Amino acid sequence: MIAALWVMVGISLLLGAVLGFSAIKFKVEGNPLVEKIDAVLPQTQCGQCGYPGCKPYAEAIAKGEANINKCPPGGEEGIRKLADLLGVEYVPFGEGAAPKAKAVAFIDEQTCIGCTLCLQACPVDAIVGAAKQMHTIIASECTGCELCIAPCPVDCISMQPIGEDITNWKWDYPTIPIVQVAAR
Amino acid sequence: MRPLFKFHGGVHPATHKAESTRTPIALAPIPTKLVIPLHQHVGNRAVPVVQVGERVLKGQIIGRPEGRLSSAVHASTSGTVSAIDMQLVAHHSGLPDLCVTLIPDGKDEWIAHSGVDYRQTEHTDLRHLLRQAGVVGLGGAVFPSDMKSYSHKHKIKTLVLNGAECEPYITCDDMLMRERAGDILRGAEVLRELLYAEEVLIGIEDNKPEAIAAMQKAVLDDKHAHMEVIAVPTLYPGGGAKQLIRVLTGIEVAAGVRSTEMGVQCFNVATAYCVWRAITFGEPLLSRIVTVTGNVEHAQNYEVLLGTPVDELVALAGSRADTNKHIMGGPMMGVDLPSGSVGVTKATNCIIEASPKLFPPPPPALPCIRCTRCADVCPAELQPQELFWFSKAKDFGKAQEYHLFDCIECGACAYVCPSQIPLVQYYRFAKSEIWQRERDAQAADLARERHEYRLMRIEREKQEKAERLAQKEKAALAAKAASPAPAVNPEPAHTSSAADPDDTLQMRIDAAVARAKAQAATAQPKNVNALTPQQQAEIAEIEARRAKIREMASHAGADDEPPKSNQG
Questions:
Q1: Which domains does chain B have, with CATH numbers?
Q2: What value of ipTM does the predicted structure carry?
Q3: Strand order in the sheet with B47-48
Q4: Closest residue in chain B to residue A145, using alpha carbons only
Q5: How many A×B Cβ pairs under 8 Å?
Q6: How far does the CA of residue A173 sit from the closest CA of chain B (Å)?
Q7: DSSP character at residue B319
C-alpha cells in the first residue's frame, strides 16, 4: 500500500517536472491567434475599428473585447474569414460602416504648404516631403486609410478612387441573364 | 518513321480552314490610320519615345522596351504621330490602353536598317537585336522571343517549331509555311544557334499537306541537317506547346515546370520567320499574316501592318452586312473585340467575322450532370467538373488544389459539355480572383511591414531623444560642479550672464547668445579686399555719415528712452 503510494507520488513528481520544464522551454511568445487574425485584416491601419491600427484590433478580437464587423476595408469577405477563423457567426456591418471603393490619397502640390502634419499622420510612411517642401504620396504604398486628410491645414489632400484598367481588371462571375418571356 | 506520342483528351471541332487557303497571301494596303498599342507583348508596356506631331519613318521605334521582360514597338509605316492616348485594344476586358495613332503619309519610307550575319555575331547581341526588333511569339502568347532564346541554365536538346495551328478557321501559319518555308527554316537555324539545340522538329497537323510538302522540300533544298518535318494527327489542342512537345518527343512537361528544364524549347513558325527577317535584314516586326474569315465574301490571308484598324482589314475581305461582332483568334480561345476600331496587334492571327447564323448564341447553361466528358477531353488531365464546382462556389483554395493554374483555357471541356456550361469563363473568373487576392495580400504585407517599421522608428526616436536630454542634464550638472572655471565648461557663456545658474534652459540660451556674439565679432567683411583708392574714399565717407547719424540717434534716444541695442 505505502509502496504503491510512493510509486504514484514519484510518477507524479516526474511528470510534473517534465511538464514544468516544457512549459518554460517551449513557451509560445505572444498569442498566435493574434497573428492569425492580423493576417486576415487588410493592414490599412486606418483606425476605423476604433483601435490604433490593425494589430491592436486583432489583439482586441483575440481577447473577445471587439466584434468582428468593425473593419470596413476588409469588406464582407473579411468578416466571413474572421468568422471562419474564430468559429463564430457572421455579423453584418453596423450602421455607417459600409466598405468604400478603394482609393489612394492625392496631394495637390500647388496648395501644399509643406507643414509635415500629414507625414506624421501616415501610418505606413507613404508620404514624402520635408518642412516647407511640398509633399507627395507614394501611390503604390498608400493604403487609402484617409488619416492624412484631417490634419491637413489647407485641405489639399483628396482621395482618388483606383479605376479599373487592363492590369487590374477581373473576369466577371458568369451569370445567366433572366429574360422576360411573354405569357402564352 | 518517327514514333509519335499522344496527349490526353482533345476534341475534333469542324476545322473551316479550306475557305481561307484558296488564294495566296495578299498584301493589305496601307490603311488611313494605324492604332498601335504599346502593350502588344507579355511583360511591361513599352514606353512611348515619340511626340504628338512628330514624323516617324517605317521601322522607327515608337515605344522602347521597359524592364527585363518587354519588347520594342515600331512605326509600321512612315507618317505623322497624331495622338498618344488611351484607345480600345484587343483585350477581353474591352478597356482602353495606351496606343500611338499614326497617320500614314503613303510614302512607306524606311528608316536606315541593316542586318548581321548571325554566325559571326555574339549571342548577346543577337538577343538584343531581337528585343529591339520587337520580336515576340506570334502563336498568340506574344512572349518576348529574346527571353526564350537562352540555354545557359538547361541544356536544350530539341527545338520544336510549332506549325500545328490546331484552332479552327485559322490558316495564317499554314499559308506562311506554304509560301515562305525557306525563311522559316533559316530563322529556325538562328534559333538553333542561340539555343545550341541539336535537332529541330517541325510539327504540322496532317490536315495541311501542302504546308508539310513545302516545308519538307525546303529542308531538302537548303540541306538543313538534323531538321525534320513531322505530320502530327489533327486533334485540338495539339498546337499547345506542352501538347505538341508531348506528341513529338514523348516528354511530358509537368505542372509548374518549363519545357526548357526538360531540354526542349518551342517557337511558332511565324516567330522563326520574323527572327530571320530581324537578324538578317534588320527588319523589325512591322506586319504579320492575318486570316480574315467567317462571315465574309472571300476569306483570305493578308499581310497586315500592325495597327491596321480591324474595320479596314475586314472591308478588304468583304465583310457581310449581318456581321454582329469580330472575334480575334479562333472560335475556341478567341477574344471578342470591343469595337472594329482596334488595331491589329502582334497577337492577331485571325479575325473571324461572326454572325448569329455562323455562331448562334449559346443556349442557356443547364445544371452539371457530372458526366465527366470534360475530364475525358481535358488535354491538361485536370478534373474540369471539380474545377467548375469550386469556381462556382468561389472556393478558390480548393480550385488551386485541383491545379486550376494548369488549365490552358483551350475550351475543349466547354465544347463537349452537354449542359453547355461556359466552363472556361468560370476558370478565368477564379484565376483573376486569385490573382487579385494575391495582389491584395502582397499589398497588406507591405503595409504591415511599413507600419511596424514606423512604430519601431518612432520608438527609437523617442529613446534617442530621452538619451540626448539625459546627457545634457548630466553635462549641465557637471558644469555646475565645476562652476567658476569656464575653460573646462562645455557651455562657456553661462558666467557672463546674471541669470540663475540652476536654470539649464536659461544656460543654454545664454550659451547660444554668446556663441552668436563670438561669431559676429570674428566675422570679417569679405568684399573689402583689393579696393581702388576711389572706392575706399567712398566707403570712408559713408562710414563717417553713418557714425554721425548714430551719434545723433543716441543723443536723441537718450532724451526719451534708452537705446534698445547696438545697430552694428
A1: 125-283 (3.40.50.11540), 371-481 (no CATH), 482-512 (no CATH)
A2: 0.83
A3: B47-48, B61-64, B73-74
A4: B447
A5: 66
A6: 6
A7: B
CATH for the stretch A32-86? 1.10.15.40
Q: Judge whether residue B253 has pLDDT over 70.
A: yes
Q: Which residues does B contribute to its contact with A (CB < 8 Å)?
A: 39, 89, 91-93, 95, 97, 364-365, 422, 425-426, 428-429, 431-433, 436, 439-440, 443-448, 450-451, 453-454
From A119, which residue of chain B is nearest by alpha-carbon distance? B454
DSSP letter for each residue of B131-152: HHTT-B-TTTT--BHHHHS--S
B350-354 sheet: strands from edge to edge: B26-27, B300-305, B287-294, B350-354, B325-328, B335-336
Place of cell 505572444: A30
Q: Hey, do A32-86 and A103-161 end up sharing a CATH topology, with the first three levels equal?
A: no
Q: What single-letter amino acid sits at B476?
A: A
Q: Does A123 touch chain B (CB under 8 A)?
A: yes
Residue B493 phi/psi, 5-degree rounding, is -90, -10
Please give the angle made by the CA atoms of A43, A166 and B138, to the nearest 5 degrees. 130
**Which pLDDT tens digit goes with each residue over B364-374?**
889 999 999 99
Is the predicted pLDDT of residue B501 greater than 60, yes or no? Answer: no
Which residue type, as a one-letter code, is found at position B298? H
Whether residue B490 is preceded by a cis peptide bond, meaning omega within 30 degrees of 0, is no
In this structure, CATH architecture of domain A103-161 = 2-Layer Sandwich (3.30)
Instruction: Please enumerate in sequence order all residues whose Cβ is within 8 A of that of A177, keeping only pairs 6 or more positions apart, or say none.
Output: none
Q: Is B37 helix (H, G, I), strand (E, B) or coil?
A: strand
Instruction: Check CB contact of A53 with chain B, cutoff 8 Å.
Output: yes
